[in-house]
Prior knowledge:
Layout: H1 2-16, H2 22-28, H3 33-65, H4 68-87, H5 91-120, H6 124-155, H7 157-178, H8 209-223, H9 230-239, H10 243-262, H11 264-292, H12 297-302, H13 304-309, H14 315-328, H15 333-337, H16 347-353, H17 357-388, H18 394-412, H19 415-419, H20 423-431
Helix pairs in contact: 1-6, 1-7, 3-5, 3-17, 4-5, 4-7, 5-17, 6-7, 6-10, 6-14, 8-14, 8-18, 11-14, 11-18
Amino acid sequence: MWLLCLTAGLQSACFGVIGTALPPALRSSGLSPREVAQLLGQLGSASALAEVLLSGGFGKLADAIGRKPILLAAPAMTAIARSTVICSPTLPTLIAARVASTLAVPVYWLAYQALMADCFGHNATQLAVVGSRIQAAMGLGYAVSSLVGGPLAQRDIRYAYACSCTLGAAVLGCVAFGFRETLAEARRVRFAWRGSSPLSSLALFRRGLLSAKLNLVVVCQSLTNGMGDLWQVLARELRGWGAAQCGRYAAAAGFASMLGTLLTGPSIRRLGARGHTAASTGASACASLLLGRATSDPIAFGAIVPLALGAGKGQATSARITNLGERLGDPEPSAQRALPPDSARTLRLGEELGVPQGQLAAERNTLNAVIKVIAPSLYAWLFAFGSARGVLGLPFYSTALLLCVSAAVALSIPEERWTNSSPQGVAREGGR
């Protein structure tokens, strides 16, 4: 368990240490804030489109060769791409390294989720607890690395990228010497490369009303990730922040989010899964509203409190989706262990149709990639539209709206449907 958390934290730190490097570099090249926002959106959308086309094939590859080879190859590719910036710290190299990294990192997390499910997928509660701890470790890694990365990038961008490559080497060491292969030879399938269709993710919404609502909650929350690096552009325009100040803020937000994630368990026990999801999502919406009007440092740092309270907003939903899969799925623990945590609802259909577990993870990954194609360009357009009309905070206000919709959908699910474990409830969920 500690090794999973350590590896997740190191992998998150690989990005955190260079997270504030690209936007200032684009701005110093002479681009206007609107052009920087549009370019960041285009980069995010282009990378996500490639992910849509490739994720299905990589999911099948994970079922054919196992999890560990992909867990080694993806960070190695990322480290090589980022090392080119050390040798040639030019704007084209920075952009190329970002594109290569954003292609490799989702493949890493796809295999990582499958490995987690191999180990913990038989127990939904344990999986939720492990997921929250790993998310906390990622938050800690990002926070510490952001604190270091901002000043490094401001001094010399090569220092930040060298630090990222060093952390990547540490990830490779943990995987190579600490991880074992969790996919047995008997469960591997013959590999046949096929691209993914974006329409394949629609199956997630065709497996019953409850599953559709739960996945809609996740989609609304995931769309807000389209903000990406745009928050740094907004921080510069609203408050005049540079890379170092953005790094300090990212570090503070990361530490707070780590603590907020650790409160997920007590919050669910006190408020219930439905209440926790609605309350934490609402807290995130409040944070976005504050940041949209944060023309001073005290307001911006004040938004960290609701931001932390909303850090665990997705945990209860993922646990409930997993619980559906556990109760509707194959009673064989070995089959259940193979299922990625947020795709567990598909277990029964997957087993009946003979769909391997990596492919099921890819189905979920494809949905996330489709969102990432749309969201960055959407947020870039919102920034351009808002700035032209004197409403710089429009991207944050749009985030608050999406989160309110997510909370409303969560509240529309009756409390008993979040926790119902009776045989009658199982039968009803299977028939919907």
